[in-house]
Each structure stands twice: as structure tokens, then as C-alpha cells.
């Protein structure tokens, strides 16, 4: 186990830039800034689009920066001895193992730059899993506790959240009432409501309004229609009498809380 006790350094404007943007954008901004400084100091101006060498130069500057900050921590001597860290020709600390010529650039795992680099590699592998992202990172860099860092990056990745999201389950259907499932005679249990208005002609120019009283069976879904001149309670009671005379007397009647139905209910209760 590597003990990485660190002291938190104060963030500066470069850290704020890296915090707000992606690694690719940060490197390009740094490359344009460095080209601007070069053109201000030298007569040989650099023109045209950015070159790969310019972007890699800024990347090395960031790597040296995070390594320099890591050397100020208390746990650096221990990790330096365990990984056999040595500077290469460009001044970048690399890990030296048993294989000659195969060195990996050391990056501390608690730096924002390292997290952004893992995010970039994760996207370049088309949102690969933990093993694929780790393998891609370790082609060039060595990061302590890389697995936990990759898991943290994947848990924050919006693309992975969309890919791994489970489809919404259909809601559990509600239970049908007993009046809808118990076998019985037609129009023994009914529901009633109004439809309309239905316009009709009165002479050549004038028009009148009429309505329909709908009686539907809760078991067979059969429908009985009665024509009403208005929505008054007396007209509905007349339609209900015609329905009972034609079909049968229902045992249960369902309706909404319309004023006409409430008054009709009072009339039916008085008949009892």
C-alpha cells in the first residue's frame, strides 16, 4: 500500500481553467497563449493552426507542474522510492522498472489534471469499462490507485449514465372493482353521463340544442342512449324512467358529482 498523505495547495488561475473546461480545451488554450507570448518576443512569428508539438509542449508543462506540487507533499519520498522515479531527458518524472526502455510518466492521483486526463481517455475509448480505461491510461502514464479513480470518473460520466440507464418499468395496473368483474345480467350495474350538445333545426333558420344521456353496462360495455331536451333534473329522471322501462332496473348507478345527478339521487332515495 502506498501512503499518499498530501497537503492541499492553493488553486490558481490555471486550476480554475482546468476545473471549468476539458483537458483538450485547456491544452489548446495554453498552446495559443504560449504562441502569443512567443510572437510578442520573437520576430519569427508562428502562424496557422496549432501543431501537435505545441500541444504536447503544454501537456509536458502541466505534467511537470503537478509533479512539482506532488514533491511538496509528505508522502512523495515513499512513493518515489517504491516506483523508482527518475527524471527523463525532458525533466519529467518517470517510473523505472525491470524492463529497460519501458518507462511510464508518473501522475499523482489526487490532482485535477490526472482526473481530466482519465476523463479524456475514457471518452477516447468510447466510454469503455474500468479495465479498458485503465489499460489505455497505462500505455503512457502510471497513476497510483488508478482503479478507484477510473470508477469515480465513470460514476460522474453522463454518457455512461445514459448508456447504463434501465428503461422505465410499466406501472402496476390497478385492480378492477368487483362490479366490473362479477358475472351478472346486462345493465345490472351501469354508469351514466351526458354528451352534447347536439344541434338540430327548428324551422329554416333557428337551431335548438339537445343532449344525450348515456347509460353503459359495466360488465358487457353495452350502451343505451336517451335524447334529452336539456340538462335539468326532471329531464334526466324522465330519461332514467324510459331506460328502466326498456332495459331493467339497475342495482348500482355510477356517475360524477354533477348537479343533475345529485338531485336525481335525492329523488331516488325518496322513493325508498
Automatic annotation (TrEMBL):
All copies of domain Integrase catalytic, residue ranges: 173-272
GO BP term (any one): DNA integration
Superkingdom, natural source: Eukaryota
Pfam families per UniProt: Integrase_H2C2, rve
A Gene Ontology molecular function term of the record: nucleic acid binding
InterPro entries (UniProt xref): Integrase_cat-core, Integrase_H2C2, RNaseH-like_sf, RNaseH_sf
Protein name, per record: Integrase catalytic domain-containing protein
Organism per entry: Pocillopora damicornis (Cauliflower coral)
Amino acid at each position: 500500500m502506498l501512503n499518499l498523505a498530501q497537503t492541499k495547495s492553493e488553486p490558481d488561475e490555471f486550476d480554475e481553467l482546468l476545473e471549468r473546461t476539458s483537458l483538450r480545451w485547456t491544452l489548446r488554450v495554453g498552446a495559443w497563449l504560449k504562441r502569443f507570448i512567443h510572437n510578442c518576443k520573437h520576430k519569427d512569428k508562428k502562424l496557422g493552426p496549432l501543431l501537435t508539438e505545441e500541444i504536447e509542449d503544454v501537456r509536458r508543462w502541466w505534467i511537470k507542474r503537478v509533479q512539482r506540487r506532488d514533491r511538496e507533499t509528505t508522502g512523495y519520498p515513499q512513493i518515489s522510492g517504491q516506483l523508482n522515479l527518475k527524471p527523463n531527458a525532458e525533466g519529467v518524472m518517470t517510473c523505472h522498472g525491470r524492463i529497460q526502455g519501458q518507462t511510464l510518466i508518473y501522475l499523482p492521483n489526487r490532482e485535477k489534471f490526472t482526473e481530466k486526463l482519465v476523463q479524456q481517455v475514457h471518452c477516447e475509448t468510447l466510454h469503455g469499462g474500468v479495465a479498458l480505461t485503465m489499460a489505455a491510461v497505462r500505455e503512457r502514464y502510471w497513476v497510483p490507485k488508478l482503479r478507484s479513480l477510473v470508477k469515480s470518473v465513470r460514476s460522474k460520466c453522463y454518457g455512461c449514465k445514459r448508456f447504463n440507464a434501465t428503461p422505465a418499468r410499466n406501472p402496476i395496473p390497478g385492480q378492477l372493482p368487483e362490479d366490473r368483474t362479477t358475472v351478472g345480467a346486462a345493465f345490472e350495474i351501469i354508469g351514466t353521463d351526458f354528451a352534447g350538445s347536439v344541434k338540430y333545426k327548428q324551422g329554416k333558420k333557428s337551431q335548438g340544442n339537445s343532449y344525450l344521456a348515456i347509460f353503459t353496462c359495466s360488465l358487457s360495455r353495452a350502451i343505451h342512449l336517451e335524447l334529452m331536451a336539456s340538462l335539468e333534473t326532471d329531464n334526466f329522471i324522465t330519461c332514467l324512467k324510459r331506460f328502466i322501462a326498456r332495459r331493467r332496473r339497475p342495482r348500482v348507478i355510477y356517475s360524477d358529482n354533477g348537479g343533475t345527478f345529485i338531485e336525481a339521487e335525492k329523488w331516488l332515495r325518496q322513493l325508498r
